[in-house]
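Worked example

This section walks through a single chain of length 307. The input is the sequence exactly as stored; nothing has been trimmed or padded.
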Amino acid sequence: MSAHPLFHPDQHHPGRANRSEGLNLARSRMASSDIDVLGVVHAPGPDRVASYFAAMPFELVVLVITGAARDCAHYSTRWVASLTLVCRVIHHAVDSILVETLRVTGTNCEAVVMHQTRFEQTQHINVVSCDWRIRKCMEVLLWHRCSSLKAVTFSNCSPEFSNSVLLMLRDRHRRIFDTVSHLHIRHLIARADAKALPASVTHLALDPAISGPRRLLLFVHYVSRYLDERSHHLERLLVRTAHASADFRAAFIDAVTGIALERQDTRVWVDDNRRLTSYESKRKAAMDDEELGIALWYTGRQLYVPS
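Given that input, the structure is written out below as tokens.
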């Protein structure tokens, strides 16, 4: 299965790379049409902007509007949504950006189910709470919709919720849908009875909650067992230390490093740049992660590099 352009592993931030290609194409077509790019961007008033847009080919207008929508999707969602009212072509281009990442909460999950057909182009589902109603929503999205889905992020609020999501992803893998290749589990608490991860996952990001020696040992066993399995197609494991307590952070990093070095495993990476201590810092970090999109799985540093 070929990778979607937004999920190409050789791009640090695929969304921005695609946007740059689009803007470069726009510049070249403006040049061939004797239209000044800077004149459009820095036009002194709306009338002059309107005149420039009127002189531009329609496909170029769509490129410019799509680039602006992608830039503002996380910060000015209502403005981006208003662009869908311009015309049918722009609606199709912009709406796909609005639903590219779907944040599922206890508040919006019922509305998501009611409008499920809208999310066939969703590529990343971010579950930010563990409300019991979300399970039904996830069943609808994973089994019946979201045929373009590539990535899932969820928080390990409870073993029951986590196991139910993992089972849904495994069932999805056995069906005819495209498989989820990128999985991110926040606040992971490793357990001996945890359900196996989906075999379709190639890029796994884990944010374990390490607050004592027992949890550290369980996580080491959890990761070691997973790396030794041959039933999956893992290409990259990113372990993030943001949820590790200060007292065990150093021991945690040493343990993960030991796992990679002992196995000479080039797939293991660690991101130890952040430590989250307050609710506000965790909330902001979750928003930053969502904005990163697929680039999140390509952060960190490699622990074993062959000489």
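What to look for: The chain has two domains: 5-96, 100-302.
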